[in-house]
Design a protein that fits this description.
about 35% helix; alpha/beta; about 25% strand; four-stranded antiparallel beta sheet; Rossmann fold; six-stranded mixed beta sheet; single chain; 10 helices
């Protein structure tokens, strides 16, 4: 049984078929990276896993449980088991770093104030931040904001972490530090992860397996080395960043669902 499994998931948004009978499986303890151009449905896929969106058809299962069937307490428990790092961090600007990191604990868990403060401090330490609980998000660098967002995601000690473009908007050195942090947290917390990105340097660094999303479907999947040397022309154009190729030529023929 896979830790996360999407089967024949379809989603139409504003008349555009974003996901078209898309299937994806993530094994327990695996870091799966989803690559693809902007607007192909990578973030939409993550939102289906945490049920911020519901599919028009298809099935989403987490730890064997049908996400669409969950209600009330069961749905809240699912959310506690999944940490999500949103693109841009999505911190509350009116709250301090400590209040941001501990927000979910205060709102949804029956913990004493001292326990919450200790959990916040531990989570910040795990991402390399110390004595910043009273700092406001506006006073942080882009890289620090990303780390705070990650600390908030791990504060509930989730079994799954979903990353939405974790290296977007930061310089290459900071991006590499974030990639190292993703690897470290995977090893320390023994989590299952999905990383959505179009940054191939990041994808190669953190992935156990990489899946490419194109025209609503996963068209290829493999290890970083298998994807790097894939003969699939769509994969090759994307990972090399070539201006010319089947993606930009507007071809919409059926793509073989393998890496050849």
């Amino acid at each position: 049984m896979s830790m996360i499994e999407l089967t024949d998931v379809s989603k139409n948004l504003a008349g555009k078929q974003v996901l078209d009978h898309m299937s994806l499986a993530v094994e327990e303890g695996e870091t799966k990276v989803i690559i693809g151009r902007s607007g192909v449905g990578k973030s939409v896929t993550l939102k289906h896993i945490v049920r911020l969106m519901e599919p028009d058809s298809g099935e989403v299962r987490v730890q064997g449980r049908d996400v669409l069937s969950l209600r009330g307490k069961d749905l809240s428990e699912l959310h506690m088991q999944i940490g999500m790092v949103f693109q841009g961090g999505a911190l509350f600007d009116s709250l301090t770093v400590g209040e941001n990191v501990g927000f979910v604990l205060r709102e949804h868990m029956n913990l004493r104030t001292a326990e919450i403060e200790e959990r916040v401090k531990e989570s910040l330490a795990l991402v390399g931040l110390y004595s910043v609980e009273e700092v406001m998000p506006a006073d942080l660098s882009g890289g620090m904001r990303k780390r705070v967002a990650l600390a908030r995601a791990i504060c509930t000690r989730p079994k799954i972490i979903l990353y939405d473009e974790p290296t977007t908007g930061v310089d290459p050195i900071t991006a590499d530090a974030i990639n190292l942090l993703i690897d470290e947290l995977h090893d320390k917390l023994k989590v299952t992860s999905i990383v959505v990105t179009h940054d191939m340097r990041s994808a190669y660094k953190v992935a156990d397996r990489i899946a490419m999303l194109y025209e609503g479907k996963i068209i290829a999947e493999g290890t970083p080395d298998e994807m790097r040397y894939a003969h699939n022309p769509y994969v090759h154009q994307f990972i090399t960043g070539a201006a010319h190729g089947p993606i930009t030529e507007g071809q919409s023929s059926i793509v073989k669902n393998s890496i050849d």
